[in-house]
Amino acid sequence: MQAFTRLTGVAVPIDLPNVDTDRIIPARFLRRERDEPEYATFLFHDVRFNADGLEKADFILNQRRYRGARIVVAAENFGCGSSREAAVWVLAAYGFRAVIAPSLGDIFHQNCFKNGVLPVILPADVVAGLRAHIHAQPGAALTVDLQPQTVSTAGGASHRFEVDPFRKEMLLAGRDEIGLTLGFETKIREFEARHAREMAWVVPPRAGA
Amino acid sequence: MFEKIWTRHVVAEGPGGHVLLYVDRHLLHEGTTAAFTRLARSGRRVRRPDLSFATADHYVRTAPGSPVPDDEIRTMVEGLGRHTVLQGITYFGVGDPRRGIVHVMGPEQGLTVPGITLVCGDSHTATHGAFGALAFGIGSSEVEHVMVTQTLWQKRPRTMRITVDGRLAPGVDAKDVILAIIAKIGAGGGVGHAIEYAGSGIRAMSMDERMTVCNMSIEGGARAGMIAPDDTTFAYVEGRPLAPRGAAWRHALAFWKTLPSDPGAVFDREVALVAGEIAPTVTWGTSPQDALPITARVPDPADVGETGRRESMVRALAYMGLRPGTPLAEIAVNRVFIGSCTNSRLDDLRAAARVAKGRRAVVPAWVVPGSGLIKRAAEQEGLDQIFLEAGFEWRESGCSMCVGMNGETAREGERVASTSNRNFEGRQGKGARTHLMSPAMAAAAAVTGRLTDVRTLRT
Fold first, then answer.
1. Which chain A residues are closer than 8 Å to B155 by Cβ?
2. What residues does each domain of chain A span?
3. For chain A, what is the radius of gyration of the CA atoms?
4. Domain spanning A6-174 has what CATH number?
């Protein structure tokens, strides 16, 4: 996994609450491979492009000043709905490395950590303030710094966010979670032995043909 | 109850309040193929194939007699079959009557039992919480992690108890209850929480109904939703093919009876609803929280003070092609979909058939049973004949028009009365407009061609 340490980049405000993962990547693209060159075009596809494949001028990512945005500043419950990890893959394919919101869909939130994308939760008024700041200065950059846990504007306003220390370490190191867990093999074996004694019924019988 | 199950499954304590949580059941479907591919590439194996079970539901077609359509989907479904054989995982594939929607198959086979942890790469995994299990949806990376280690790093969620006391009015069912709950707490209300549904209104429900309630926990933002196991639960589980038997059953039962929350249990948040006040409910917008009694009118954004909320309502109404003030019961529909992991079980099909019986569908109406076994059981009761005589289409099992990834979608601008779980923009096809409701309400919409208060139709 790609590590996340510090990122300065153009931030795009997405004001709509409850942006679901179907909107982030429509279901018909879920069978596509994430290393396809056009993968990034699936991001927000149906609200970003017209039926003829041309960009919709009013969609925010299509506005000149937000080209090359790296940070999403969203509203409540961004990434709700389906568990599709492709919602994070497609954001990352486009170039996004951080999502700032008052709250995120629980599964999306976890999926971000697995893909080197930093989810940042800040109070609703702070996030609304950041969106207002960007709207006032389209194309303005934000800096997200994971070690000190801060989001700051070019003007200097800085907001500290909370992040789980476990996830923080994993992101800073770009560490593979499966590799980490395999280090707990002895503990898992011990657990399985105890579990088999205490809850012997938990292993189902073999299914018939 | 959450506490009791959680504590039993902690393998190790990690940093920052994370624990390594053991997984008792891992359910897989053909959308999981990417994780299998990464697993194969890494040269690793599934640690506990005996705790992993697969079926094909998301991509298979449900047209009568043709379960797999194009080559690409055939490759996907066959790929799942191949991976499960390589890894020694039980797979209920195409042609097996046990094949069905993964959240229907698990309980039906007796894989879903109280007191266990169960995960699946699908957000509607909370369905299994109806049995008093801790069940939640996971992403593709987590799927691979469970395959290799049979564990997940998890942080303890907050707890919320939603109590529904009293009796449901006639014409009101579990779908109306969960839509009313989501309307009350909001689509993000349960974020970071595991929900326990309680109260006499929940206790009185069948397992099929309880699954409908737990299924849509994620639409209220919660990854897990659960109901304490009781005699209804035990009666459902006993004798299922993969449920514990003999001495194992007796040991399990003794443990399961200890699971319900203690009388003094404290929850981080409590919410209460009065069952008798819940009406047949439909959604009007593009979030499951946009739900109102069928007797209401399309709301007016002008009445909403908060700017963000007002703007998203304007957007939702534009997408849905609705004008404020229109009575919901006057909205004409183009099609009807009865199915999905929310509402495709026998109780659901019976409720829809009661309404369809002796009437005639005036718009295309699909009935998609949740599994091959449910299809068979429904046919034994003659439900298929009722639907067919009423002009409904009786199809093979699968996710069908709920997921929009298998080619079974509504056309742009079409309005669908649907028993599924999401009315998001584009969910049932690009530009398709979804109204969520119960199976009885969907059948009522099919025979009248508009959103209809099922209580106005004699059954």
1. 164
2. 6-174
3. 20
4. 3.20.19.10
* A164 inside 8 A of chain B by CB: yes
Is there a contact between A204 and B110 if contact means CB atoms under 8 Å apart?
Answer: yes
Per-residue confidence in pLDDT tens, chain B, 459 aa: 999 999 999 999 987 789 999 999 999 999 888 899 999 999 999 999 999 999 999 999 998 877 677 788 888 888 999 999 999 999 999 999 999 999 999 999 999 999 999 999 999 999 999 999 999 999 999 999 999 999 999 999 999 999 999 999 999 999 999 999 999 999 999 999 999 999 999 999 999 999 999 999 999 999 999 999 999 999 999 999 999 999 999 999 999 999 998 889 999 999 999 999 999 999 999 999 999 999 999 999 999 988 888 999 999 999 999 999 999 999 999 999 999 999 999 999 999 999 999 999 999 999 999 999 999 999 999 999 999 999 999 999 999 999 988 889 999 999 999 999 999 999 999 999 999 999 999 999 999 999 999 999 977
Q: Do A114 and B142 touch (CB under 8 A)?
A: yes
**Residue B153 and residue B146: Cα distance in Å, rounded?**
10
DSSP state of B180: H
Q: Which two tokens stand for residue B367?
A: 């009935």
pTM score: 0.96
Residues of B with Cβ-Cβ distance to A205 under 8 angstroms: 241-242, 245
Most A CBs within 10 Å, among B118, B149, B160, B283, to test the A interface: B149
* Closest Cβ–Cβ partner in B144, B191, B309 for A106: B191
- B330 CB-contact burial (10 Å; exposed 0-12 / middle 13-18 / buried 19+): exposed
With residue B308 as reference, give the H or E element that holds it: helix B307-320
User: Pick from B398, B260, B278, B289: which is nearest to B340 by CA?
Assistant: B398
Size of interface A-B (CB pairs under 8 A): 192
- What residues of A are in contact with residue B18 (Cβ under 8 Å)? 164, 166
Residue A201 in contact with partner chain B when CB distance is under 8 A: yes
User: Which structural domains are found in chain B, ordered by start?
Assistant: 2-256 (3.30.499.10), 281-456 (3.30.499.10)
A131 touches chain B (CB under 8 A): no
For B355, the token pair is 């309404």
